Amino acid sequence: MSQRFIPLSVPSLRGNELKYVTEAIETEWVSTAGPYIQQFEEKISEYVKTKGAVAVQNGSSGLHIALKLMGVENGDEVIVPTLTFIAAVNPVKYCHADPVFMDCDNSLCIDPIKLKEFFANSCEFKNGVLKNKVTEKPIKAIVVVHVFGNMADMEALMDVANDYQLPVIEDATEAIGTYYTSGRYKDKYAGSIGSIGVYSFNGNKIMTTGGGGMIVSNDMNVLSRARHLTTQAKSDPLYYVHDEIGYNYRMTNLQAALGLAQLEQLEAFIKTKTENYQHYKHELENIPGLDLLPFREGTRPNHWFYAIFINETFGLKRHKLIESLAEKGVQARPIWDLIHQQTPYHKNYAHQIVQANKYLNQVVNLPCSSNLNTEDVDYITECLTEFNYSI
Ligand SMILES: *Cc1c(COP(=O)(O)O)cnc(C)c1O
User: Fold this and answer.
1) Which of 5, 17, 228, 230 has the fewest CB neighbours in a 10 Å radius?
2) How many domains does the chain have?
């Protein structure tokens, strides 16, 4: 066993984190009120150029609120990708609605062509309402996940969504910092293009507040509704009048203190991650049968998570490769199991899943932390080189 341990994705807390958190503790503003929360919201919306932002407990709660704000209710359906982390889908069930699972394209994100085809052939669009012909249930929204920080094909997806008057909820939990550098959405950030976007600041994401999240939108009405619902739907703060069921989803000042310090370093994290990605790419070119998955052209990706694609002839040895890396102290993992195959979703419809099945068996994630250095990448690619790929 090796002494060395290189984790998959861990935070880097070497900026003003301790200073700001200490200030929060010394001033005794540790809970859901306090000056850092608003500052953090303002800084995030400034960074991703939205009209505003609402800080929440985590990405999952942000997505729950996003679905509610887009009108998703009992008996509705929501389009989701199957190749993603389950937290992108579970909130659909929190709303007592059902997911309809879609395949991915070669960006690993939801495939706009199959989506368009599904709407055209399997649904009926009448009086502004899109209905699934089989279940006769209305489809209310599309959840788009920017997988691993890679921008989904937003031009094509927004076209399809607009054709059917559907709101797009961007699960940008993995993609803060990713933006278009050309095309229709030039300079637009992941999370700011659809009707509403959600970021996560969980410990494994590119920046962290321990646990935390943020809702962003360019619609002031959506933002104020989000603020209302995440703070117990209190319509009179003195007399405690509540006009609907709200949630205790507000971020704390302690979390926001961490977030402000992390945001100051986000561009530096992206720079390191981009350099390490390029270094991996350069080194992996020497290993036939292994490909580093690319990020979309015409974008500046945040390079959050790195994924290698193992050539089919090696497919069956993926678990052996992961084991061999583990023995050498390198934490790697297979891509998520598909959500439509998970127990709670067995009964839900999955539309012509082909590409996702291919990636399911052939993708491995490699260490990508923002404090990973060139020597670490050298060591990891050496381990990958030494592995015996022959059948
Ligand atoms: C991390 C993540 C979430 C959930 O964020 P939390 O802050 O952990 O609740 C949702 N969707 C995707 C794709 C994620 O990677």
Assistant:
1) 5
2) 2
**204 CA → ligand 1 middle, Å:** 10
**Centroid of ligand 1 to alpha carbon of 387 (angstroms):** 32
| Residues within 6 Å of ligand 1 by CB | 58-60, 84-85, 87-88, 145, 171, 173-174, 200, 202, 213
Is residue 10 in a domain? no
Q: Which domain holds residue 26?
A: 17-262
* Residue 43 sits in the same domain as residue 58: yes
CA–centroid distance, residue 267 to ligand 1 (Å): 21
Q: Which residues contact 277 (CB under 8 A, 6 or more apart)?
A: 292, 303, 306, 368
Q: What is the pLDDT along the chain (391 residues), one digit of tens a residue?
A: 557 999 999 999 999 999 999 999 999 999 999 999 999 999 999 999 999 999 999 999 999 999 999 999 999 999 999 999 999 999 999 999 999 999 999 999 999 999 999 999 999 999 999 999 999 999 999 999 999 999 999 999 999 999 999 999 999 999 999 999 999 999 999 999 999 999 999 999 999 999 999 999 999 999 999 999 999 999 998 999 999 999 999 999 999 999 999 999 999 999 999 999 999 999 999 888 899 999 999 999 999 999 999 987 765 688 899 999 999 999 999 999 999 999 999 999 999 999 999 999 999 999 999 999 999 999 999 999 998 877 6
In a domain, 381, yes or no: yes
Q: Which amino acid is at 383?
A: C
CA distances from 375 to 26, 108, 167, 306, 307 (A): 40, 29, 45, 17, 19
Q: Which atom of ligand 1 is nearest to the CA of 201?
A: 7
The answer to whether 101 touches 92, Cβ cutoff 8 Å, is no
Instruction: Say whether both 166 and 240 belong to one domain.
Output: yes
Tokens matching residue 7: 């984790």
379 and 331 co-located in one domain? yes
